[in-house]
Design goal:
The chain is of the alpha+beta class. The protein has a single domain, classed as Creatine Amidinohydrolase. Helices cover 33% and strands 19% of the residues. A 4-stranded mixed sheet has the order 2-3-6-11, sandwiched between helices. Strands 7, 8, 9 and 10 form a 4-stranded antiparallel sheet that branches. It has a 3-stranded antiparallel sheet with strand order 1-4-5. It is globular, with a radius of gyration of 17 Å.
């Protein structure tokens, strides 16, 4: 595989991709703020779609997903068990891919309601592992394969299983699939910035629940930049919240 995997389309711009990322993280936060115990998963999915549309963005290249409870174990391409209701002490994750003008957004995060320390640890570990692997990428010549090998080892050390069915993928100006459909975990070179989504899906070894975090591979300068990056960290962290019905 050559660097042709990192080609972009005619509308690509770094500023556009960073804007799509910010809008995606804002949408995730807005969706999470509307979810309450007692909600049915299918209703949460429809609400999430409404939030994305209300921000002026198109529902893009993969389904809008919100998953509750035991459905958080399932790989993304496997349908949820229908009718799952969010409990008082529970977890859920959001996985969305809005199209912001010409640019693809993609992001996900896990949230906990009530008091559920084990769920909270898994949610935090998913985000922590994402940033550990991002740091490895930023500070070395690690290939995509190296990154996911390291992620699997670290997930095991944390007490979780890394889901191999979520191996990362390209993003670009829409549609990236016309450029490259391969995975980050199969990429034999060092991935470039503003090209790839790093996906982390941690699974409970006992098969009870999972936690998900994904975001774009970016250098620290893009995470910390005042414009537009100042808004990113505020909305990127999974929320552990006590919410009433």
């Amino acid at each position: 595989m050559s660097k042709s995997a990192e080609r972009v389309g005619p509308a690509f711009s770094v500023a556009g991709m960073l804007r799509a990322r910010v809008e995606t993280r804002k949408a995730i936060a807005a969706i999470a703020a509307r979810i309450r115990p007692g909600m049915v998963e299918e209703d949460a999915v429809e609400m999430a779609k409404d939030v994305i549309r209300s921000q002026g963005h198109a529902l893009s290249w993969h389904p809008t997903r919100v998953r509750f409870g035991a459905n958080t174990m399932k790989p993304m391409k496997v349908a949820s068990v229908p009718g799952v209701v969010l409990g008082d002490n529970d977890l859920f994750f959001i996985d969305i891919a809005p199209r912001v003008d010409e640019w693809e957004g993609d992001g996900g995060a896990t949230f906990v309601v009530g008091t559920a320390p084990e769920y909270a640890r898994c949610a935090q570990d998913a985000e922590t592992l994402f940033h550990e692997i991002r740091a490895l990428w930023q500070g070395s010549g690690a290939s995509g394969r190296d990154l996911y090998d390291a992620a699997a080892r670290r997930a095991s050390a944390m007490g979780w299983v890394l889901d191999p069915a979520l191996p990362g993928h390209r993003v670009s100006d829409f549609p990236h699939a016309a450029i490259h459909t391969g995975t980050l975990a199969d990429y034999p070179d060092r991935p470039g910035s503003v090209r790839w989504i790093l996906e982390i899906h941690l699974l409970d070894p006992q098969g009870r629940f999972g936690a998900f975090f994904e975001d774009m591979l970016l250098d620290d300068a893009d995470y910390l930049a005042d414009a537009p990056g100042a808004a990113i960290r505020d909305v990127a962290t999974p929320v552990v919240a006590n919410r009433s019905r």
